[in-house]
Structure formats: structure tokens, C-alpha cells
Model the fold of this input.
Amino acid sequence: MPQDHPAPMVSGPDQDPSPDYLTLGGPSKGLHRSSLLSRDERLAGRPNLCSDCGLCDSWLQRDMAKACVFVRNRAEAIERRVFGRNRRDGDELRFGVFEQMVAARMRRAVPGAQWSGMITTLGARLLERGVVEAVVTAGTMPGTRFAPRPVLARTPEEVLATAGNKPSLSPNLNLLDEVRDSGIKRLAVIGTSCQVHMLRAAQDRLGLERLDVIGFPCSDNVAYPDLTFFLKQVSRSPDTIVHYEFMQDYSLHMRHEDGSMERLNFIDFPMDKLDGIFPSACLSCFDYANGLADITIGYMGARLGWQWVLIRNQRGAELFELLRPDLEFRDLDAAGDRRRGMPRYLQMLAKPAGKPPKPIRRLIAWLQRNRGPRGLEFARAIIEMKMFRNLHHVRERFARFEPRIVPGFVYRALADYEDAHQEAMGRPIHPTVEPARTPEA
Ligand SMILES: Cc1cc2nc3c(=O)[nH]c(=O)nc-3n(C[C@H](O)[C@H](O)[C@H](O)COP(=O)(O)OP(=O)(O)OC[C@H]3O[C@@H](n4cnc5c(N)ncnc54)[C@H](O)[C@@H]3O)c2cc1C
Ligand code: SF4
Ligand code: SF4
Done:
């Protein structure tokens, strides 16, 4: 989700707006509660920052301090273990370690998929071929359109039924209990970047013979009630939205039940009303591109209508081969120059400005679409902006956590903006306290 300035930390427990759902049947341990409550009381006793990844609902709760990205970001140690190296200078600082990057899409889109359905097709194929015994994925809570429900899929059909985003926090890792109890030894996990971090950090304790990790880029996730609040602020008819996405053309596209499309430019978002909906965990997250997965499948580095795929290691290449026969390809490209707008962005981060008048907003939207960063440059721009915004959030709200939760690659990725940062923030990008060296994962 786009954001011009940091949101304040949400405080105090929210009311559960949907008590009916609490009586729904479903998996144990109150999964429906965890995804439907805004400020879940279950988070009591957890770190100040928590994205409700589900690990603490599982038998691995006792390993939380060793696995949780918000206790200590272990990304660089995990990179060395999983990829044999850390990020190289250049695009890897923003996108994570990768061996290959492509733009592709399914020749025939999966019904109900978020984009063309590459992720659910891959999960289904792993089951069809007997490569894995189960896939961790996120279905939909009965009676809702967008509330997630963690699902341990055992058949290709069960994976395909989970196509499409449920764009709110989903405690998928609590399925690790069911994985252990069912004796599953070969597992695929589809997840957000934070889930993948916790999973990788705990991987050695899972007793698995094989683990395939399919990630998607993730940023500014929200709890489900905040998602419904968000849709009310941005749509003329929030209840009829069946699909929406933050597009590379700098606007939010919302498709309604009757097939009509509604669009809202990012610059027209009512940011004053959205303050506080983003959890502090998501505002303290530094792995937009899901850099610890074997393969990341998103869209933001590709042109509109296409998916962006980062193949990170040999396992990721094997996974991609399973999809290749169903894919069509186009070239990845880049246009615009993200560096030109960054000084202004930093100034707005330091001193949030009010919304400009409508004609100016129209002009800005046109300039963004036609002259702004596009293709890979769009992905670089958005990731760098989120790194800056989240670094700023951590420094304002959780300053003493910075050495533990901000990984070293963030400072390297942003180093070119040192002068602009110094001017806007009156301090260097690099912390005055050296980041603690991460113990090997
Ligand atoms: C909260 C969120 C934010 C995202 N932000 C970006 C972004 O900024 N840039 C970008 O390039 N891509 C982003 N994505 C990914 C993108 O929207 C698509 O999901 C991705 O490109 C895959 O498309 P697909 O058609 O192949 O997926 P599909 O085949 O439709 O499969 C989607 C998969 O995502 C899983 N899923 C859905 N919701 C959740 C959830 N809440 N938690 C865990 N798993 C879930 C589903 O279970 C399914 O396995 C985001 C996804 C989510 C859920
Ligand atoms: S983010 Fe996950 S591991 Fe961290 S405290 Fe929350 S549930 Fe536990
Ligand atoms: S934005 Fe980061 S912390 Fe929030 S759900 Fe996505 S990966 Fe997790």
C-alpha cells in the first residue's frame, strides 16, 4: 500500500467488529480470532512488534526469540546458509539474492487468481508430481471475501481453491503443529517475507526432508478489520469489491461484482484517515521482496499485466521449471529515474505535507504514470521508499531496536542518498551505533 508518511503506532486493544466469526467452526487455536481481531489480545507477552505470523501459536513458540524477525533480523545469516552468500551490490541490495529474474505469466490465468495464478499453479503441481506431501497456503475465512484462513492443502484442488490475495495478516505458521502431527516430511510453504524469515530460522528444528519456499513480495499488510476500514475510505462501494491491487501505474484498481473497474490514484489516497491502520511490525519490515524464499513471485518489477519472478537458488530454478511449460514471457525493462524524486520524498517523510489541490494531484498522477519510474525502476523506487519510511519509523518509535532489527543491507542500499537524507533528517543514514553482528542461523 502506498504511504507518504509514517503512521503512528496503534495503541490499545480494538473491539472485535465481527463477533459472529468467533463462533465459526475451524481449525484449533482460534485461527479465526487471530486474523479477525485488529489488536489481538493473544499478542500479550509477545514482542512489541509482531506480525502474527503464527509461529507463536505452534510448538515452536519456545523458539520465538531465536526465530522472530522482530526480535533479531537474521536475514544475512540465513542468506549465507541458504544461498551460500550475502547480497551483492546493485539490485540484490533491494531485491535479495537472485540467480535469475524474469517477467512471465500463465498462458491461461487461474480463475480467481490475484494475477495469473503462477503461485497456486506451482503449489498444485508440487502435489500432483508427489514432490511434496502438503502445501501451506491461505484460503478465505467462510463468510468473508478477504479474511485469510491458513490451509494445509493436501491436494492440487485444495491449493488452487486458495488463489487470490486475502490482503491481511494470516498466521499461516501455526499449521506447523499439524505438519508435525501428520508426520509430513516434504512440505511447500507459500508465505509473506516475515513468515519466510521465521520458517527459515526454525527450519533445522522442523524435522523435514524437503522444504520448498515460495514467497511473494509483501508490504504494508494490515489486520482484517483495518482492511475493511481501508476499503471504506477508498471505494465508492467497498462491499462489492471482489479483487483489488496496487498497480504499477500508481493507482489502486478495484474490480466490483458487476465487473466494473474503479481506480484511485495513489496521490488521491486519504492518508489523513489511514493513519494508524498499518501495524508497527509491517512498518518495521525490511524484506519487501521476500529475499529468503527459493523463488519470489510478484508483479512490481514487471510491466502492467505481467508477473515478476526472482529465482534465487537451484531449488528455485527447479520450481520454475515446473511452471515453464504453462508460461509466456516478455522482457524486463526499466524507465524513468527514481533518484530524482527521492530528495523530495525524504523531505516529506521528515515533514509530512498536506494533500495538494486536485489539479496539482492530477498533474502528479500523470507525471508518475508517464515520466516516473517504470518496470524494474518502479520496483527499485518503491522498495527504497519503504526502506526509508520503515527506517524512519523504527528510529521514531523503537530506536533502541535498530541495531537488532534493521539488517546491514538496508544502509548499503540507501547509501547513495546520504546527502539528501542528511539534509532532510539532520542525521546520517548509517546508525551511530554499529548493527550487532547476527549470529549464524
Ligand atoms: C498482503 C500482500 C501484499 C502484497 N504486496 C505486493 C507488492 O507490493 N508487490 C508485489 O509485487 N506483490 C505483492 N503481493 C503479491 C501479489 O499480489 C500476488 O499475490 C503475487 O504476484 C502472486 O500472484 P498469483 O496470481 O501468482 O497468485 P495466486 O495464484 O492467486 O496465489 C496467491 C497465493 O497467495 C496466498 N495468500 C493470499 N493472501 C495471503 C496472506 N494474507 N498471507 C499469506 N498468503 C496469502 C494464497 O494462499 C495463494 O497461495 C502481495 C500479496 C499480499 C498477500
Ligand atoms: S511475529 Fe511471529 S514469531 Fe514474532 S512474536 Fe509474532 S507470532 Fe511470534
Ligand atoms: S509487511 Fe512485512 S511484517 Fe507485514 S506481513 Fe508483510 S512481510 Fe510480514
Q: What stands out?
A: Residues 28-224+285-329 form one domain. The longest strand covers residues 100-106. Confidence is low (pLDDT under 50) at residues 1-42.
